[in-house]
Fold this sequence. Notes:
218 residues; alpha/beta; TIM Barrel; 8-stranded parallel β-barrel; 17% strand
Amino acid sequence: MKIFVDTANIKEIKEVYExxxxxxxxxxxxxxxxxxxxxxxxxxxxxxxxxxxxLIFAEVISLEAxxxxxxxxxxxxxxxxxxxxxxxCKEGLKAVSIxxxxxxxxxxxxxxxxxxQALLASRAGASYVAPFMGRLDDIGAEGAExxxxxxxxxxxxxxxxxxxxASTRSPLHVIQAAKAGANIATVPYKVIMQMVExxxxxxxxxKFMKDWEKVxxx
Length: 218
Ligand code: E4P
């Protein structure tokens, strides 16, 4: 399972990109709004940091299919690795279908909360579906169960749409997504840092350093 970073913060993207652990960057309107930048500028800045090995997900704002299609085309023109996030709704599915039939623009259906929605997104032609794990857990539902249901359905029917697990809030969510068969988990910077840390690693390194001081030197 690949890891994406779920942020538009340039410093955070740079740091995890340099660690070599990410294969993509995901944004949404809430994430972009935190940076206080013009949307297109924020997206362009991200494309300047990550290499050609990284995908960049940006979301359309229109609520009607025609507007979504126009926005998607403009965003896709910014960088060859742009994937356009389109919300799961009637107009969104229509936009995904138009883009699939008439362009090379790749789409990700976002705000997916059921296996039925994921199946529709794949049939409409989305390259990715983004089920929101944490937000389901927030309302007392089983986020991990949804991911394994979608993975099972896609495997049975040989559906090529990739599952990008969104709304991951902890290292446990990332591991649950991986075990459930997700292709990608998009993970906040803070959670990637939590994944790096383990108290036994920290203590072990401190002990190695301390013991090294006792080793006779030339
Ligand atoms: C991804 O792009 C999603 O929009 C994001 O992971 C949602 O996360 P949240 O539920 O923590 O806001």
